[in-house]
Amino acid sequence: MAISDLSSDAGAPLLEHTVHSCVDYRSRPVHKSSSGGWKSAYFVIAVEMAERFAYYGILSNLISYLTGPLGQSTATAAENVNVWSGTMSLLPLFGAFVADSFLGRYRTIVTASVVYVLGMGSLTLSALLPSLSSSDCQNTNKFSLCSPYESQVILFFLSLYIVALGHSGHKPCVQAFGADQFDEHDPEECKMRSSFFNWWYFGICVVSFLTYLIINYIQDNLSWGLGFGIPCICIIVGLLVFLLGTKTYRYGIKRNNEKTPFVRIGQVFVAAFRNRQISPSAMVVEEEAWEILSEEQFKFLNKALFVPDGSNKFGKVCSIRDVEDVKALLRLVPIWTTNLVYGIVLAQSSTIFTKQGATMDRSIIAGFDLPAASLQSIISLSILVTMPIYDRVFVPSAQVFTGKPSGITMLQRIGTGLFLSAMSMVTAALVEMKRLKTVEKYGLFDELNVTIPMSVWWLVPQYSLIGVSEIFAMVGLQEFFYDQVPTELRSVGLSLNLSIFGFGSFLSSFLISAIDKKTGGDGQYSWFADNLNQAHIDYFYWLLGGINTIGLMVFLHFSKLYIYRNRREYTCRNVGR
């Protein structure tokens, strides 16, 4: 079976009813009526939903597993969760490089999914081993008494990072491959692609909601082995469904003699450096290049277009397209950097938020307590409720005022999400202050495993604000980093988006570690004391709220300066700011 997103020398002329620069699974020109679009996107969304079910099945309750069966402290467990989560978000840069330069997206997805299954299988095995599944370790009040064998701990963490390796090839390629099923040169399909990003995230939130409610309950009340095993089975099923759609997919063409995008990018920097001392009057440049030469941003790269007058020593090294692609990538740097604060905030929803909720009254009915990790389902529920409103009500309404196909620009959407995330931190700080006052009122300051007489539903606003912020910022970032990178680097673009949350997790881990050491000395209680009744995570929330606000202001400054890459290319894209 020839998959042309790997290589193809086919040069057959494309007919009007075929898709530009795409072939089918046999490397033949692909017809719009029989391929791509939503009929193919459903298969891709299915495998992503299965992967997200597995991912959230680990992440959402990982801190409880580390502080429970593995007996780690709150600060250490939070650091380990953030490091693993950060690795999961950074490794896709490697997977995207492999996909865009060598294997292609389809084969990378299949290979990565197999690795993912192996990691989930060994993770399940580590949880089923005797010392981690004893009755003592299933009782949350006895977590600190569990003493797992060192070999089991090593197997557990090794399994986690095998999952991360599988995720590195899966995550950046699946969404890019799904978006590739919509022809960007067709105005109607291009609009569908914008909607695809919304419903893609909607599907993810459906499975995360189910994970938080079902898998977290199984893990806390039945068996950790079963709680990891079910997601493993789901990702196997998801891979099989993805393979069923093979004949319907559109595969991008990459010719055997075509330079990889990374080589072209490197040549631009080399040529610009080589010509750095040559004056413009001594240059030869094509007439069509004058438009890009008139742009002031990253003007030093323009010299990559020049060769000395009368000299054929180097010949023409870089095209206008090459220089524009490099400039497009450099424009992403300030947007990427200013969104790191958003990655830090999101890291709290699966760590500190969970520990905060574990101390509160979580009773739903007599004899049933909501698992603390299941509180994250509020995020998914808020997205499930709000996303259809955004896509079907807000966007059409905004179109009337802005005239833009997606209602607001991608950067406006991201900025709105950053504002909402700052508000979530302010809300979380106020709720934690209320919780500490309740602790003081009932004299529970020194009580470690006691339920605070304060309903866990007080946490709903902060979780909900995180969820709504994801509709704006998370989805906006996904579309932005897909749309604003060169076509051949779209897997890399989406991995750059993921790396925001990877670095955000690492920065969160660094902050927690540094603050814990700074505030926990000289007999003082740390902000992250194991007994949260003695801690001050409200101070941490206020700090994050301030950092997020500063990040938002810097983001708005760079947004005003940003020049959209596709402003002259596609009629269906947002061209304003």
Description:
The structure is a single chain. This protein has 18 helices and nine strands. Helices cover 63% and strands 5% of the residues. α4 runs antiparallel to α8 and α15 runs antiparallel to α16. The two termini are 44 Å apart. The longest helix has 35 residues. The chain has a three-stranded antiparallel beta sheet with strand order 2-1-3, with no helix packed on it. The chain has a two-stranded antiparallel sheet with strand order 4-5. The N terminus and C terminus are likely disordered. The protein is mainly alpha-helical and 577 residues long.
Question: What is the average per-residue confidence, as pLDDT, rounded to a whole number?
Answer: 80
Largest sheet: 3 strands, antiparallel
Radius of gyration: 25 Å
Structural class: mainly alpha
